[in-house]
DNA sequence: ATCCTCCCCTAC
DNA sequence: TAAGGTAGGGGAGGAT
């Protein structure tokens, strides 16, 4: 066993780094200025007999044939292959091992519930010592491919796409005779051949790897019920409470069965934790077994190069090297505090612990998937932005499929771009990405999605953000995170549907969540939260709570009441038999202004008129709410004349409409009447956002200014503030309710108090919506509605119409909604056209 | 303090 | 020719 250790140390020492791409690329940059344009059609047939016997590669042939089309195109790239992505993944070894875990999950779905087993805390207690086994197949890809070729067992063999001694294809795996020559995974085949001219190259056989991996895991699961899969050829077993068995005996049995079943050898490491078990496996390789008892941990680690520790790659190794630290023994000389200062808290901890053989991780704790993505950083060459967009769409499709495959949807989308560094020439590696800047942008969606259209819209938006020359793009990736279970999501979505909302009977009891805090703060002051809707955290289920009794007059928040739209106020006033207006008269000196809160500047009223006449041709169906709308409009119009002058008189020094200053976007009236803590929030927020004339600490000044223009009701929904992502997110989280609010507004039978509460919620929610240059909240809201359309168009066209009518109605009252309506209308039209081949307007009239 | 975004690092 | 993917952990720095 000790000579095993020597071997391990030596090979670990050799294993400096082969993958030092950046330096590599820079170094060869000038050398390789060969234009990849018109590729030599001369197919190079210099493949060994072994290689030729392999299954032909149709993609290569196709793409070679296809390259006559593009004059300036590189021979083989995104430019020349219509099915590039699909084909690429079929031949990518890294894609194979990267996606293997998901296939494993599906194949052994039951093996995940081992986390909730008896294990619980037995490992957490220090007294109980555990036994971990780590199993790893020897030179897996090679072993599988030559398992029926005993004649090659002692010859140097490697797996690679190319057998050219000048090729830049990468060695995927090399057997141990080949490693004796210095051949390693990740090397270019030309370098491997230089080190070992007699190296025999085999092509990949992914099906066989999959098959052997299945056998491998069948065996492991048979011998142990606590199995943590690391990769297709590697796993941890926790055999702590595996009763009577001697772990070494168990290990031998497993190794033997693996060899008998697969014809491939595996090595095993046994130790008290995962770290040392893995270290033991390295020592055991190839085809061996190594047990590191607790008392010998120090001895094994002392001279072990730090690079041999899992978690220390070439960057950390180099950093440590500059500190004269090469071995774990040397690493132990550094204090934990010092390591944490140099490498960060967690990394410092890890270095300190691992150098002492300490590892508290437990086997089998299955963490749910946190992200799903797809990326391609090879063969990516674009001539223009359309190429890039097309490629992006393919990535979206890929990600959509994978999300679906995982039964999951993402609420956060990240786009990654590899951008050619300006200093970098043509990559050393054929069709490689070379020396690149890695860029990424992400956005959080109103609701989780796996819809390819949504992904595409988002991806394009993110892409636009980069402002990048398409020719500089060397790689792209799309990733979804903040995942939610798709079934829960869909169920939630059903629950959020307008129909189910309308049908649902009132249910008492609901869970409050952070997302509703803001609204609740308003409601709690009004006592008007007789209707509340929240999306409860776990199930996405919408719970509704209604109270039949009205709050007492004295419980109402005057400020909020005043900020309500006139028609809403009238309803509430009716509910209180007209006492509300009396209350206001008593409490407010300027109550005579109250009737004026409904006034609109003439220009806005004109816009509304235009819009309305446009709609009239479409909206033939009279409904109860139409009356209300007319009433509201008449009211608005009658009041609009006096107001126009006041608004135009420029009482607000900052309402210069040409200036997009934040203050000009704040409706002073709303500001004035918001509850105190909300107002403070907003002012704080404004202060934080690049607005010089709001930097003053004197709140009362702004308050006064606000009061002077307090009658402009239509400005209410223009209260847009800065860019607080938290609010966007919180609002987005409750946005399912937004559509319910639409529905409630639409429901003519909705009792007044509920109507007003809903509208109040909506208004207070909207008034907190941020909107800056990037219009995050605005697009968030639009995106929500578009997603909604995309989903609903499949099953429920009527709901689509309902939603559209609601939006249209709201757009007549609010400039914000007018903008939203304009933004989403094309999506409605496209959806209807796509799914029903009809014209949206006609459909509306028909209905 | 805790979160989020945009990275970098690591492993297979 | 060649198929440099995938996912989690974590850090820096800024916003809340
Ligand atoms: N840079 C790499 C590393 C690994 N692999 C693939 C091929 C390997 O066969 C397989 C398993 O990886 P291992 O690290 O276990 O390497 P091997 O099994 O090949 O060799 P060892 O005997 O060291 O485990 O993953 C790869 O394609 N490229
Ligand atoms: Mg292996
Ligand atoms: Mg392995």
Question: Can you list the ligands bound to this structure?
Answer: 2'-deoxycytidine-5'-triphosphate, magnesium ion
What's the gyration radius in Å?
Answer: 34 Å
- If helices are DSSP runs of H or I spanning 4 or more residues, what is the number of helices? 37
For the record, give the distance between the C-alpha atoms at the N and C termini, rounded to a whole number.
82 Å
Report strand %: 5-15%
Number of strands: 14
Class computed from helices, strands and strand pairing: alpha+beta
With strands numbered from the N-terminus, the spatial order across the biggest sheet is 5-6-1-7-8
Biggest sheet statistics: 5 strands, mixed
Mean pLDDT: 67
Q: Percent of residues in helical segments? A: 40-55%
Q: Runs with pLDDT <50, length 5+?
A: 1-73, 115-126, 491-549, 563-568, 588-737, 743-775
> Tell me, what's the shape?
globular
